[in-house]
From TrEMBL:
PROSITE patterns: ADH_ZINC. Residues 59-159 form the Alcohol dehydrogenase-like N-terminal domain. One of its GO terms (cellular component) is cytosol. This is Alcohol dehydrogenase-like N-terminal domain-containing protein.
Length: 250
């Protein structure tokens, strides 16, 4: 009620104001404070802004992850470059980012993949129930587009506002362009016994997309061996990872 004069106000209106104040207080207490790159519009229109946000608590099958690093992939620029409403997956405001790594801060109900404090690497999300997922081909999940690009799954709120989250999260199940973000359980790889310190966890963040795309193409899709000759066009994160994959294959 601060800022509102309460003298000579009818009791019924006072009760409404008190209820509003209480709602705001409760919503704020359900939120963690974070910083995120919020896309309000396309990058070309200057719509990407670093802002103070609130993050809701993790629900069933979700984790709250404190990011230590995030790669930047062309898909972030591509999705955040489509004018709002031009396609079902083009909506704002939202938080992008899909090569995150970090430490688990909280877990929601039913989460078994990691516990608070565990280091985690993040990748794409999938339904785990369709026939394609059941066959182990998660990246070809029948609902891949809806789960990874769709929504909006509203997880964040601007710190200047209170109330229900209005900013979309869970891009690729993770929205890693935030130092705290809601992550789907299926996007999480527990790196507890894989990384020795924070620096190593930061270094491995791009495993979530660029590294596995490049090296996976050579190792798993092409199954290239030392008797093959391969051509890699372009040496960004994906191309360089393809070279590393080729070196591993001999
Ligand atoms: Zn990517
Ligand atoms: Zn699926």
């Amino acid at each position: 009620m601060s800022g509102r004069a309460s003298n000579n106000v009818p009791p019924s209106l006072l009760r409404i104001w008190q209820r509003e104040e209480e709602d705001r207080r409760l919503s704020a207490s359900r939120m963690d404070s974070a910083k995120a790159i919020v896309c309000h519009d396309t990058h070309a229109n200057g719509g990407w802004k670093m802002e103070q946000v609130g993050v809701r608590k993790p629900g069933e099958g979700e984790l709250l992850v404190e990011m230590v690093a995030s790669g930047i992939c062309h898909t972030d620029a591509m999705i955040g470059g489509i004018p709002g409403g031009a396609a079902p997956i083009a909506f704002y405001p939202r938080v992008l980012g899909h090569e995150g790594s970090g430490y688990v801060k909280e877990v929601g109900k039913g989460v078994t993949v990691a516990q608070p404090g565990d280091p985690v690497l993040l990748s794409f999300a999938f339904c785990n129930t369709c026939d394609i997922c059941k066959a182990g081909h998660y990246s070809n999940c029948i609902d891949f587009n809806d789960i990874n690009f769709g929504g909006p799954y509203r997880d964040f709120t601007l710190a200047s506002k209170s109330g229900e989250p209005e900013i979309g999260g869970q891009f690729f199940g993770q929205s890693s362009f935030a130092n705290l973000s809601i992550v789907r359980q299926c996007s999480v790889v527990n790196a507890k016994n894989l990384v020795k310190d924070k620096k190593e966890l930061q270094l491995f963040a791009p495993l979530g997309c660029g590294i596995q795309t490049g090296s996976g193409t050579v190792i798993n899709a092409a199954k290239a061996t030392s008797s093959d000759v391969i051509l890699i066009m372009g040496l960004g994160g994906v191309g360089l990872s393809a070279i590393m994959g080729a070196k591993i294959q001999g």
